[in-house]
Amino acid sequence: MKKILSRGVGAVVLALGVAAPLLAAAASKSTPAEPAALPVVHATLSSPPHVPPPTGRKQPAKVIVELEVVEKVMPISEGVSYTFWTFGGTVPGSFIRVRQGDTVEFHLKNHPRSKMPHNIDLHGVTGPGGGAASSFTAPGHESQFTFKALNEGIYVYHCATAPVGMHVANGMYGLILVEPPEGLPKVDHEYYVMQGDFYTTGKYREKGLQPFDMDKAIDERPTYVLFNGAEGALTGDKAMSAKVGETVRLYVGNGGPNLVSSFHVIGAIFDQVRFEGGTAVQKNVQTTLIPAGGAAIVTFTARVPGSYVLVDHSIFRAFNKGALAILKVDGQEDKRIYSGKELDAVYLGDRSQPNLESVSVATQAAAAGTLTVQDQVNAGKSLFAGTCSVCHQADGAGLPGVFPPLAKSDFLAADVARAMRAVLHGLNGKVTVNGHEYDSVMPPMTQLNDDEVANILTYVLNSWGNPGGRVASDDVKKQRAIAPAPAKPAH
Amino acid sequence: MNAITFDRRTLLLGGLAFALAPGARAAALPGESIYHLSATLVDQNGQRFELASRRGQPLLASMFYTSCQMVCPMIIETIHATLKALPRADAAAMRVLLVSFDPARDTVPVLAQTAAARGCDARWTLARADEPTARAIAAVLGIQYRRLDSGEFNHSSVIELIDGEGRIAAKTAKLGAVDAPFLKAIRRAREAAA
Amino acid sequence: MRRLHALGRATALAVALAAATMAATMAAATSASTAVAYRTVEVGRFESVLPQGNVPTASAPVDVAPFALREAPVTVAEFAAFVAAHPEWRRDRVPVVFAERRRYLSDWRAPLVPDAPPHSPVVNVSWYAARAYCASEGARLPTWLEWEAAAAADETRRDARADPAWRARILAWYERPTPDPLPDVGGAPNAWGVRDLHGLVWEWVDDFNALFIAGDSRTQGDPDLLRFCGAGAINIVDRDSYAVLMRIALLSSLDAADGTPNLGFRCAKSL
């Protein structure tokens, strides 16, 4: 009887099934002894372009960082979308801020809807793979690992799951700042900017959901080179802002995967650059190199109002691939520093002098009273190139969200006198051109005389679907006499 | 006669319906216990046994194959060193289970030979199981291995402490030296089982 | 004596009824599974993306014995029938060592009641559960090699891997987040007559724990010889096979008790 009983029971095992929390297999059961009484802090992360506030701590702490990987479709350019793989839902990923000496307990979660496994390699971690080996995480799972932030500095983090290039190309990178023990000097604004190159099977700005193109990535032929993951991420109403006299610190990273950045802000000189994010400081820098997988900290004081254009100075990337961001500075002009001449003389690259011949032909014809529309158009065309084309482009297309188009421009056609005043006195504040709003700063073209302005405007009126007509030198003279409207304060 | 038969059957079914009964093992197996796995193995003496038969006492477990040149001998040596580092009573009571993932070549005589050559006394079980069973044991222990066409294996190397109830209490990937925290875990497990 | 006799008879009747119901369900399940289509795959010599030889970076073709592969992944309805017939695999009864509590069938409405469309592939299943299901069908999980060999085909060619279009299609699927609910099984058959090897769900293989990558693929040239016996963790022979590489990355990130909302399985039989 007893035998049957025990056999019967043995045949059925009731599983009580205690739900045990699952830690990553890599985590060994032995944890290092923790120093007594380390305060526990939950890190505040921020989405770009914002930076979390300084930790304000004077002592090391145990910092808990929770970061989630989300795969999501987002716009990469107007009408163009892309499947990004993100840390924290943004490209670049959330900004992490800790202090040197902190013990960081890192929780990496992979959203259940993710298709792929992911992990993280933080360049600020001293340890195998920068944490990557310990944080390989399947969809719907969470990994945890702990490291001590030994070195202060600004470091890139990125996904290091095979194939690494693809994960990085899809936007899996961000920055972690390890503050020095005494903190960084106070500034008025801190911003987070990260450059990346993107590879799509379609051409630049080809509409629709664009897939990733591995062959282009291997060949290092990017379709887009962008700040913060999208064209227009930092322009228009998303532009960064500061006031005249304020100090600005930019944490600038380069996620790659392939390209090195020649980082430059048109119209600004970097007072200080912690190049490569290291401790050494270089001063008075125009353009600084940021390696792929690297970062820099640049600090400058905004002295003159205007739109400062952040670019990768490998300049085709800025105008033909989207590597362009804006920092808008508002406030009082200081003519002693900037009188309002051309935006950036250096920026004209190797464009040599305008074709003087057509200009001299026009000048002579004007003197002889035989100036034709065609003469004006020819002269205007030469003058347009290298001056107006810098912003409005050689084809008058402008830059969406940044510089208004001149091609088929309703704004221009509506009021030519107003166009003259724009060229002469500059134009500030919101305008609507062809149904799109623009809110940039056009500086006054004080280097142009009446003839030149008239010729340029005649060329523009007769190009790119504009209604035609001509502008006479006298008309320009009249508009020049009208005092400019005071610069509207932008909000 | 009929009444007795029905009684037996009723009792048997009663036993099935209620999974717990006095006289059997005191507590049910915890959900994370490896002893839930039905696995039949054969040891170096040719004895068949069930994996679950190891329940009751803490165990050091790993997987290996006898033709392994470098790492598997190190695993064995590390286990030797670990046992030596334990107090006598603990060391004497510890059991070791090494399961081969190469049943094709690791026959009973080969296992016996290896055990002898490596100084594995009666505390050690070197065992083999068929391929699906070996794969399942690896899965439950979290060990990875891959057979190459040449017959060699790529595999992870880890020594695991299984507590008396079949839970994985500790793991160490440290080879060639005794892992102090791992040693501590063994002592704790022995105390709990005592 | 007499009272005991009556009691015994009543119990026996109840038990017989229960047994009959169970038998009927099992018979239904069995007859359902005999209706399941398996397709023969005869690849012969095959060059895997994983090094099969001693040199981790050189390709070494191997012979893959002919086998039968289930035409489509196991569906929600099929798995539900399995759980009903094998209640030890209910999510509220299975030991956590065999199925992670938070994931296993977590999307079902109740332990026996799924939520997803019945003909969509079952997901959130552990390797142990998949194995048990295949055993119930008189089958097993395919090995990685078998799976890779069958999946090298496209609609017309048995080995389409040289075609960048094959690779591009697969990569495009990897880019799309998992839809909810998942579509039904039954996509276009490949050259072997097998469906849905690409583009639907990830799938378990029997030797998934043979696919260990250093989670960090950059350590390829730097084997930690003590941690992984035998020339370090996986190197991939053909670096262009990133489509396959990603599948390996996913499988190697899992433990046997895990499941994900986009991981299912199908079965195979030796011939």
Key structural traits:
heterotrimer; B: 194 residues; alpha+beta; Glutaredoxin; 7-stranded mixed sheet; two-stranded antiparallel sheet; 6 helices; C: 271 residues; paralog of FGE (formylglycine-generating enzyme); 3-stranded antiparallel sheet; globular
Structural write-up:
By secondary structure, chain A is α+β, with helices and mostly antiparallel strands. Chain A has eleven helices and 25 strands. In chain A, helix 5 packs antiparallel against helix 6, helix 9 packs across helix 11 and helix 10 packs across helix 11. Chain B starts with a helix and ends with a helix. In chain B, the strands form two sheets. A seven-stranded mixed beta sheet of chain B has the order 2-1-5-4-3-8-9, with helices on both faces. A two-stranded antiparallel sheet of chain B has the order 6-7. Chain B contains six helices and nine strands. Chain C is of the alpha+beta class and 271 residues long. Chain C has one domain: paralog of FGE (formylglycine-generating enzyme), CATH 3.90.1580. Chain C is globular and about 75 Å long. The relative contact order of chain C is 0.19. About 11% of the residues of chain C have low confidence. Classes of the chains: A alpha+beta (491), B alpha+beta (194), C alpha+beta (271). Chains A and C meet through strand 2 of A and helix 5 and helix 6 of C.
Termini separation of chain B (Å)? 47 Å
Alpha plus pi helix count of chain A:
11
CATH architecture of chain B: 3-Layer(aba) Sandwich
Quaternary:
heterotrimer
What is the 3D shape of chain A? elongated
Helix content of chain A: 10-25%
Query: Widest sheet of chain B: strand order?
Result: 2-1-5-4-3-8-9
Straight-line distance between termini of chain A: 91 Å
Biggest β-sheet strands, sense, barrel of chain B: 7 strands, mixed
Rg measurement of chain B, Å: 19 Å
SS elements, strand count of chain A: 25
Pattern of helices and strands of chain B: HEEEHHEHEHEEEEH
Number of domains of chain B: 1
What would you report as the Rg of chain A, rounded to the nearest angstrom? 28 Å
